[in-house]
Amino acid sequence: MGVSKSLGAGITRQDRVMADGRTIRYYDTSGQARNAQDQRPVEEQPGIGELRLDPLVNEWVAMAAHRQGRIFLPPKELCPLCATRADLLTEIPESDYEVVVFDNRSPSLRPPQGDWALPDLVGPETDTGTSAGKCEVICFTADHGQSFKDLSPTRVRILLEAWADRVRELSQEKFIEHIAPFENRGEEIGVTLAHPHGQIYAYSYLPPRVEKMLKAARDYKESTGRVLFDDVVAREIRDDKRVIARNAHWIAFVPYAARYPFEIHVAPLQPVADLASLTSEQSDAFPEVALEVMKRLDGVFGIEMAYIAAWHQAPVRVGRDLLRLHWQITSVRRAPGKLKYLAGSESAMGAFIMDMRPEQSAGQLRDVKL
User: Fold this and answer.
1) Domain 210-367, what fold?
2) Please, how many CA atoms are within 13 Å of residue 98, restricted to the half-sphere of its CB?
């Protein structure tokens, strides 16, 4: 037997141990007993990878060579994220589930052994470190054929509670500095498993975009006394040209300087630092806006849009009063049969160039008939 605990919105979490020692966490609303045993043979888990510094930009790069052999676009009947059947033993031992989170089988980052610290930055002579952190998989539903937009409001509420629960627990690890839940959808952006799911990366360092956002927010606070993201949301509300959805607790908008053909930010109107800080009222109101946004995105061209949906939030130990929680959804689809490739300017120089104005894509999203 594993550990069980009660969460918000009548959701219960039950932890069980998989055959190879990894943990799987079931998030349920109906009091299900989760006692199924993982019947697969024990496989050796990969060791921790290297962390190397790119001294030209002072950015850490994790080396995870073992991921080259991970499963790639298996057929539905062999999907490892479906529930276990008599003829298929999967990552989820139960025959059905609501939302589950389990430790990644091929993680880019792993918990370190003993005390751990980032190497000191001394340019090209910086020591090689170990890629400490945590990588988890979160499955949204046992139904292989669904997408986020097909989930019920109740299921989205469970998903949000699971995200918040993982942020709360992972934040207790001394080696974790930042936590980023995200979902990739579509082969165009590199998805290797078609089942509706996301991942949670817990880093032992601040990712480059977080460092950049933190510096911008700190500089703005020092010069104005205000929080940058709060003023960004205030401008979107004032302009009202790029807002695409809203309720009493959340707002969704295309940002003023969007970098992708379709980019949507979803933020709580009462700002919070991270997912674990959301109130029950905010959490209960999230599914309405989240589902509307995803349905509008797929409705623009009447096709499933490839996207990355990533939660941005404050780091675990710094900038808690400077960075705000928001959900960023980006798609490289600019028209049916056409993608925006991140080529020379974007990939080599990091300088984005937009082929359409954000107000145009916002209008297209608003015009979708739901």
Assistant:
1) HIT family, subunit A (3.30.428)
2) 25
Which pLDDT score is estimated for 330?
Answer: 97
Is residue 308 within 8 A of residue 182, CB to CB? The reply is yes
- DSSP per-residue codes, 158-170: HHHHHHHHHHHHH
pLDDT digits (tens, 9 = 90+) for 123-180: 999 999 999 999 999 999 999 989 999 999 999 999 999 999 999 999 999 999 999 9
Per-residue pLDDT, averaged over 235-250, amounts to 98
Strand order in the sheet with 307-312: 4-6, 12-17, 23-28, 99-103, 133-139, 197-203, 178-185, 307-312, 326-331, 262-268, 250-253, 243-246
Dihedral sign, Cα of residue 78, residue 83, residue 89, residue 90? positive
Cite the active site residues.
Answer: 197
Those residues whose C-beta lies under 8 Å from the C-beta of residue 252, and which sit 6 or more positions away, are 243, 244, 245, 246, 264, 265, 266, 267, 289, 292, 293
Instruction: Name the pLDDT band for 72 (thresholds 50, 70, 90).
Output: low
Exposure b/e, 41-57, CB count within 10 A at least 16 = b: eeeeebebbebbbeeee
Higher pLDDT, residue 94 or 340 = 94
Residue 100 has pLDDT above 70, yes or no: yes
Q: What are the residue ranges of CATH 3.30.428.10 in the chain?
A: 4-206, 210-367
Look up the pTM and report it: 0.96
* CATH fold for the domain made of 4-206: HIT family, subunit A (3.30.428)
Handedness of CA 10, 35, 40, 45 (dihedral sign): positive
